[in-house]
Amino acid sequence: MWSCFLAITCPLAKEFAMHRPLFRLSVLALALGVCGSAMAATHGEVAAREMRHVATAFKGRMAGTETEQATAAYLAKAFKKMGYQVGEQPFTSSFEYEKADKSKVKREVKSINVIATKPGMDGKVVIVGAHFDSRTPKKDSDIGKIGGPKLEGLDDNASGVGMLLEIADQLKKTKTQHTIKFVAFGAEELGLLGSKDYVARMSDSDKQNVIAMVNMDSLITGDKMYFHAGKETVAKDAKAGFVRDRALAIAKKLGIAADTNPGLDKEYPKGTGCCSDQESFDEAGMPVLAVEATNWEIGDKDGYEQTTNKAIKDGMSWHRPDVDNVKNLETIFPQRVEQRSRDFSRILTPLVIELAGGKAK
Ligand SMILES: [Zn+2]
């Protein structure tokens, strides 16, 4: 609404300035200033553009590969362009690989996290994250089918990375009381390795200073938009679900359909999510928000089956190069990239500003 109003008034203001020489300078300055902020406020533009770009320009961004490193360099550059302080944190870890004869070997992997910081005025921190790696085959039998160099991973997880850049762009000129850290995690697909490394480097006081960690993973294929809390933190204290409750309240106010896990599978309690980088923070006692799109009411009701759309075999696009790519998903779901980019941004931008103690425009 705000940006529509400005889209109409900005050309009028410029027109006015051209015909009233006395006021030209001041009105033009005002118009440019207001129009500049209107451009930043058009929700979803950056997310849609960046998710398509990351998916297609960096396909096969498997942990430990040159493509993963190139993606990290691209993201670091993008954050720097927005004016953020950027740190790159390389790490070495390992994962278990299953060979054709079913024997298992440990494989070393070198990956990297990219961290953009918006300094606040006190020690409190809000972390916003998304993994940028795409699936690495974890078994000989995966090769050619699951993950690999041809996987674009628009849904998992160029979509989350696009939203990460979107929120960073929306907030680049907003002053906040608390620090915000935008983190692009490497090697999530090999066992949350990037987020585990990030949490391992935190001191106890670092952890206590975290207001919340917001994680975005797989925002396109799923039938519905979801917001969940962390299983471990809410089991100890229901109040840790406050970020989920705020996200759902903002969505409701905006008239955007959004839900949380209904808890139809006892393994995944109502209102909590699973299976992405927020778990590393949840397990270390920090309040989290898991942002995703899927469908928790179908299949095994564990959130793994994403859609009832018959054009997606078995209702899942996960890690399949022939399914999770821009051309295919945009053919099956026309306008979905725009809709999700806009709607998630409309909810998450004010939410992150609120968490960080800033003022929404
Ligand atoms: Zn993912």
From TrEMBL:
Residues 113-339 form the Peptidase M28 domain. Keywords: Aminopeptidase, Hydrolase, Metal-binding, Protease, Signal, Zinc. One of its GO terms (biological process) is proteolysis. InterPro entries: M28_fam, Peptidase_M28. SUPFAM superfamilies: Zn-dependent exopeptidases. It is an enzyme of class 3 (hydrolase). This is Aminopeptidase. GO terms for molecular function: aminopeptidase activity; metal ion binding; metalloexopeptidase activity. It holds the Pfam family Peptidase_M28.
